[in-house]
Prior knowledge:
By secondary structure, the protein is an alpha+beta fold. It has 15 helices and 14 strands. A hairpin with a 2-residue loop joins strand 2 (91-104) and strand 3 (107-116). Helix 2 packs antiparallel against helix 11 (251-289), helix 2 (15-54) packs across helix 13 and helix 2 (15-54) packs antiparallel against helix 15 (368-398). The longest helix has 40 residues, at 15-54. It is elongated. Mean pLDDT is 85; it is low at 398-407.
Amino acid sequence: MSLLRVSWRNLWRNRRRTAITMTAIALNTLILITTYSLMGGFLKQTVRNVTQLATGEAQLHAPGYLSDRSLYKRIAHPRTVLQALGDHSIGAAPRTYGYGLVSRGTKSAGALFQGVEPAMETAAFELAGHLAQGTFLAPAAHKGLVLGRKLAKSLNAEVGSEIVVLVQAADGSLGNDLFTVVGILGAVGEAIDRNAAMMHLDDFRQLFAMPEGIHEIAVNTKGRLPLDALVETLSRLAPEDEVRTWRRLLPTFSDMIELSGVSMSIFGAIFLIAAGLGVMNTMLMATYERAREFALQKALGTAPWRIVRDVTFEAWLLACVATVFGTLAGLAASTILQTTGLNTASLAGETTISGVVFDPVWRADLTLRTVVWPVFMMWAVCVLAALYPAAMSARNMGSNLHFSHFP
């Protein structure tokens, strides 16, 4: 009689106990696949928001610029760098920054002005399509402003509102002008929401009396290049500039991503241990009930290692059947969550960590790893859990276990 057939028969000697254990393993598998898919989708979407909307996968700056964000520390040869990046099919957007005041009526606030090239910004990033109201900047300078949503709220500004701008220009003079709000951004991040006032690069140059130079080149390959390869390429193309990835630009957020991976490993370990204990309990009871049978096998010349093999194979078969049902349920749940998502807006509202606003709609990211890893780990844990009762049975059968021990 084949090992598979005998093991299957042995599993169902106690139908209730086997059914309960299988159900527990299937539920654990379902929870692990669904949770890993959800968390993977959450982290992927969060990183995508950071890199694809505004920050980019990496940024170039003049040496020492990030330490004080001085208006006078500019990239030496921006056109050459931008041309080289374009030749390598790397998306890039030049930006300039300056601080000043914005006011409307009796309301006023500090703002971080950003001068951008709308065409290049739209080609490399998705911020232009992330508007709550209005439109993005026009291709030509037109004295238009796109405000962060919290800045617009503090000014009671809306699309069409006129904003008075006052800045300290690069030549030491006071720059002031009247701009019109053309758009208001949706939730991006704390810094942009509260301070950002975006304008055309030509308008910025005129306002700040800065006829040339840029402060930042934001780079985005949209996942085409790994970060290490991207840094190596940028360092070669722009050796005079500082290169920083989003992980260095947002270290707290990067640490949070890493911590999430560790937390998920601990979460998975808890469920795997629970499943392993259930299998161990089942196999301990099963081997105890079959002690007379094992003694008979020993009397007929069965080697102890075969007892271990038979018991562990039964545990694997139990886990294999259970994980089939758990995997099918996990695939179904993850597919639904991947399509429709899980809307947490009504429960948590807007969540911001390290200045990054999380999308309230969690969507699963169903990958081969999120399915295969829980299944194989469940198999391994169940087999390992069965080794103890298997070894105990084999040792007893191989030493002083006799028929007289049993009634």
